[in-house]
């Protein structure tokens, strides 16, 4: 073997020293991660009581997890397999960290929640750190079928889904209106974009004040038609109404629609942004060809522009569906599920049963979460299948 071949061969050899050190560190981290919540390690670190060890134990887990990932990275990058196929392995090296954290903090908790839904548990451990739950099988799901609050939450979720889809066509028409080259159009775009930047909690507070029957915007508009200023017996001006302004958030038949209207405000802005981006990619050649063929107005929109906006429409529909099913912020901010539970949705009812007013029903809350997960999984699976079919057709 020539000297050049020997040098080239040694370049791809496994470096034993870094691999050995990395393996030792990795094994130590694995042992600590497996036993960090055990009484022995907790006592050794001075965290015998569970309530005192909760945050330090979490930080220790994160530390050892990061060290373990770094050790695994050192081990793998010093092997001959990686050195010979570095280009092929590089993308997976970048993805691995995100995939590991996604597995630990998303996938595993999903299956934990499903397992908790088959138990009756108050969310607490005994003084020795022993789990206090009780296996009940499908009992929580049987109770769900008989629970009127769950039925109300499910109906409200369907209502959210149906009305939230209005954000897609409204966002499209606003985008078409703003897709012009006139003076000051960027300022108007920023005004329409502004609701999307605001936090959902802030949006809920703004609309709560607007709906207030005493001092809100709705009360002021109501006063233009049904109220007048009069002087009372002490000589002060007071507002007297022939019909009192409605308490929208206090009426069970109006409250859900009022919250959905508040949620639509930022969602329309998001759909508008997606369509504005899509309109920038519309082919001017196809528009010009359509004009030569006599297409204009609705025909131009339906046959020329909308087909080119299909990717933007797909994303807008998917995001809107997911947003409607996981609606929580608005309900928590504006009504907390009231009045009388009439504005509950599955996400908020799950929270309410687990840690809210129904605190101590972790198993029941997990059953609600599982139902919501299955519903969202069905919708997402349909969208992914459609996207896969479209890609196959384009090929």
Report what the structure shows:
The protein is mainly alpha-helical. The chain has two domains: 15-135, no CATH class; 147-360, MetI-like (MetI-like fold). Helices cover 72% and strands 4% of the residues. It contains 19 helices and four strands. The chain has helices spanning 3-11, 16-35, 39-44, 50-77, 80-84, 86-116, 139-146, 148-164, 167-178, 185-197, 200-211, 217-226, 252-280, 284-292, 298-308, 310-325, 329-334, 346-354, 362-394, and strands at 119-120, 134-135, 227-231, 237-241. The strands form two sheets. The chain has a two-stranded antiparallel sheet. α6 packs antiparallel against α19 (362-394), α8 (148-164) runs antiparallel to α16 and α11 (200-211) packs across α13 (252-280). The radius of gyration is 29 Å and the shape is extended. The two termini are 49 Å apart.
